Amino acid sequence: MMLKKLLFLIAFAIFSSNFVQAQNPSSVSDLSKVNVDDMSDEQIAEYLKKAQSSGLTEQQLLILAKQRGMSDSQIQKLRNRINTLGMGTGKNQATSDGISRMREENQALPQVDMGMDIFENLVTVDSTALLKELLGKEELKIFGADIFNNQELNFEPSLNTPTPRNYQIGPGDEIIIDVWGASEQSYALTVSPEGSVKISNLGPIYVNGMTVEQANAKVKSRLTKIYAGLLPRGDQGPNTFFQLTLGNIRSVKVNVIGEVEQPGTYTLSSFSTIFNALYYAGGPSKSGSMRNIELIRNNKVVGKLDVYDYLLRGKLSANLKLEDQDVVLVKAYNNRVTIQGEVKRPAIYELVEGEDLGALIDFSGGFTEFAYSSSLRIKRNGDKEKEVVTVSASDFGTTALKNGDQILVHKILDRFTNRVRIEGAVNMPGEYELKKGLTAKQLISSAEGLRGDAFTERALIIRLNEDFSITNLSFKVSDLLSGSIEDIPLQKEDLIKISSIFDLSEDKTLTIKGEVIKPGVFPFISNMTVEDLIILSGGLKESASEKVIEVARRPEKMEQVSAAVSETFEFAISPGMGISDEASTFVLEPFDIVTIRQSPGFTEQITVEVEGEVKYPGSYALKIRDERISDLIARAGGITAYGYPKGALLVRRTEFYNAGQADNKAAIAQKREALEQFQEKDTLVDELEIKQFETVGIDLQKILANPRSKYDLRLQEGDVLSIPRQLETVRVKGEILYPLTIKYEDELSFKDYISASGGINDNGRIAKSFVIYPNGTAAKTKRILWFKNYPEIMPGSEIVIPKRPTRNRLSIQEILAITTTLSTLTLLIDRLGN
Question: Of 4, 22, 217, 243, which one has the greatest count of Cβ atoms within 10 A?
């Protein structure tokens, strides 16, 4: 039976310790557990905005998601959700006025935020670096491909400029005719589909295909039949005047076909050019040519556009104006090559017939200042295999390039062809040119010679050999400079190191401690005396002892172990704080420690403060070390008639007091540790306030009745004695229904004050209640068998009802699990016992 009980207790202890621990679900460490169906549209839209700043496209974002563990099915769901929200890349046709935008801008999709920390990390990482890691390299752009996706460069024609004189009028244009002078009239006429305009009392005037200037002359000649004043009469000029301008201009339909992002028919302003049409069509596609764009009109090629003329030279002469039913044809590229590395514009460039490697270098902006330009290597696709072609700088302008060629411009080697260096104790250390026949002695001379602290017994030449091994050559500097030894020729990358005498010895210091203004460590100076060091440290304090200045010196070096650790010397100080002749002539040696002792009888004034109901409150300096609270009260004239001795308290600096520093983290940590050692296990402490002052509980009535007794404390520096006025209230706080302050009455007990405050709430614990008295002491409720002995209440007391500890209750599921497990264990133990 005992065995069964023992087994049961062991099993129950193991089970309980493992089961009742809180089980928090682990956070998602990757995207394998992400469910796109659980995400709201707002979450997707919000996090899509974040990808724009990281520069990730939709495809790149999905690649990252797959790399982080998202399944293919979830990736497809995510793609569908993005398309459903209409946040993918798309374009729209323009409105019929020909002026509004014909497409939405191609923009990188924002990154998707799943509302989870792991997906937040996905969209906030350095996307560029991560993509380089995933994709293997940074993809080069086709030069000029993004010009037609630039929101700041849209090639929109300006409609607020004067009508060009060579503009050809066509059906749909509006002509404004103004007549003023002897006659005034204004006409707004629209060119008919047949190409004519009609004025009252005149027949149709055919203006189709005419320039504004030609139409102006023709219309004026016809208007003279109505307005004779338009013509001069004899010697007199005309008295009627005429002007023809354009109002609303017509729209034209243009077909953009070939290798463009969105081929189609676009309605444009008649002021539009080839660039406008290409912009609305999204520009050439990845296979489209930037150099071979044709404008076809009436089945004939009337112009060719090379985008490079604009991008590289700023020329727009081939950017012809469009007419109705024009066709812009973008052909496929023939020859694209790649140049990257140390050029100013690495990219993929398109070359046309007659352009060579030299032209490609010009397109890329030329070499950077770090480029190795003596020769270039071209990786070329052969008929069956790849090949490498090396081209020297002299052949750049004659080397033709083939489609798919790749040129990588390397950096120059990070080394010098004619450099030598000198370091250390010379006046001008650094790098120097290796001239023919340069020697070590000449290099020292070029460096303006040796410094005064140069160590001339030995110097080093560190030489880099042809096989990149290192050789050390040593020489005596003094012999080299005097000519006693043969001079040493220098080679490329030689390094001469001449040490300082201070580099070869330990830093020498002097230390002064004790009663000086600025104690500390000072550099050693030869022939310095004790008096000199005291002057460097700011001089002696008044607290310095008149008897002893001590100098501690390292013992002489000995080959055998000795018990001596220092040699000491002592000097006296004269009564006038002067230094004896012996001290002023005693020469210090490196690492000496000078100690100035404090005078045994020196003490600084100790000040305390008394406040409140005394006759003479204020600050007092102690007369004797043994001065006590009763002495301070007597010096302050005694307590006034309104004073309340029972409420007097003493505020004293704690051991953590630090003048001028209110927040001492080390002190707080120590105080917290000390408090936790005395903290009761069933008391919860929400916050610990660590202060540099504490209240000392005193009984001033006993002190005044028995001066210099055990109750009469000795005063310390910074003590504050506070005597309050007569107190008349009791404060009740903590876990009660209605905390308040109540008037003190002799006949009321501890429980009466609690009842007057509404009683204890459900979280209160009366067994742990306590009272804080106005003098800083406290008393707690005591239990004697089944009875509670509550503290005495006096005026100014605070009754505190603490909070019950919070205990986690088991859920129904946990109780059922424990019950089931206990039943199983009981059955198992019973069977084992039988």
Answer: 4
